[in-house]
Design goal:
By secondary structure, the protein is α/β, with parallel strands linked by helices. Helix content is 24%, strand content 34%. The chain has a single domain, classed as 2,3-Dihydroxybiphenyl 1,2-Dioxygenase, domain 1, CATH 3.10.180. The protein has helices at 18-28, 57-60, 72-82, 84-87; strands at residues 12-14, 31-36, 39-44, 47-52, 64-68, 96-98, 102-108, 114-120.
Length: 125
């Protein structure tokens, strides 16, 4: 097994309205590096995912993405400043300290996918 090297892992994120979701992720600060055949490759720094022109409501509304960041409050401020919540009529929660040693907030994309944007914090004794 030591010869089996991995490069990365990406999730396929469904889009109810493909063009709308592409615009949302660009407005959120992701870069769309490629688009073809109903699949768009998005990245932000070294993290990425694949947006798909495919939608099943039960899948979208039960899919959660976890984005680990260095400064959750900076991300919160950027999301607020970007206007995406109002522009796309999205659900968002404020940053909360979680018992699993993270501060996070959630943002639901136009298809209903929940993004949990989080920062590690020291575990309480």
């Amino acid at each position: 097994m030591s010869n089996l090297k991995t490069v990365e892992i990406k999730a396929f994120v469904p889009a109810k309205d493909y063009a709308l979701s592409q615009a949302f992720y660009r407005d959120l600060g992701f870069t769309m590096a490629s688009d073809g055949g109903g699949v768009s490759y998005f990245h932000h720094g070294s993290v990425s995912f694949l947006l798909c022109d495919f939608y099943v409501q039960a899948l979208a509304e039960n899919l959660s993405m976890h984005l680990l960041v260095e400064d959750v409050h900076a991300w919160w401020a950027q999301v607020q400043a970007s206007g995406v919540v109002e522009r796309y009529d999205l659900r968002i929660t404020p940053p909360v300290e979680q018992p699993w040693a993270m501060i996070d907030f959630t943002l639901t994309d136009p298809a209903g996918v929940c993004w949990r944007i989080a920062q590690n914090i020291p575990r309480k004794a």
